[in-house]
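Exercise 4. Each item below gives a protein and its sequence. For each, produce the structure-token representation.

Item: Transcriptional regulator (Fulvimarina endophytica).
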Amino acid sequence: MGMSDDRDLRRAAKLFQAMADPERLALLLRMAESEASVSDLAAFSGAAIGTVSARLKVLTGAELVVRRREGQTIIHSLADHHVRELVENALAHATGRECGPASHVPGHHTQSGKDEMADHQHHHDHPHVHGPDCGHTAIKHNGHVDYVHDGHLHHQDGDTVEEHVIPVTDKNPAECTAENPPKHEAGHVHGPGCGHEAVPHGDHIDYIVDGRLHHPHGDHCDDHGPVEIVQEAAA
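Answer:
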């Protein structure tokens, strides 16, 4: 990688300055799941709309977030996939975890449905051994059992742990279901710390709710089909 000029370095430094705040970082994580209005983000963070707007102004000024108008509402989303990868890599470094499969840039879905076994990678330096009663939610997936672990889908293969992804299929589609949204707690917004387990599905992240995949999408959730849970997480 060649040396960047001073202008590029200043722009990069501005990115890190904007991210150097836990509350702004949390907003980026929320927008990594789906685009959102200021009201959505305020409900997610529990902060006042004015406070959230101020944080968004910093993120927008650093070119981490972009805006678009939808009727009378301003919708915010991550600027591009680099932002998501930047946040994921920062958190992976901070927690000592490997990055999982890259998720989608908000607002974009795919129906291509990659072959699952072509869409996994090894998870190195993983001391925990998954199995019955290991404490993690287990789901039946592609003829075997995988374990939901910190937003990743782990498959124990001997001494090796593989990162798996639930493929996009007729059973688990990735389309919008705004006209037929899933049953959902009133006012609940999915995101980090929402109380539901995150799991990679296709090129995005879904949340397991009563054995079904929920995907936050604007002002509603999409129903991305069922998963067969064979072991509940330890309380």
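Check: The two ends are 47 Å apart (CA to CA).
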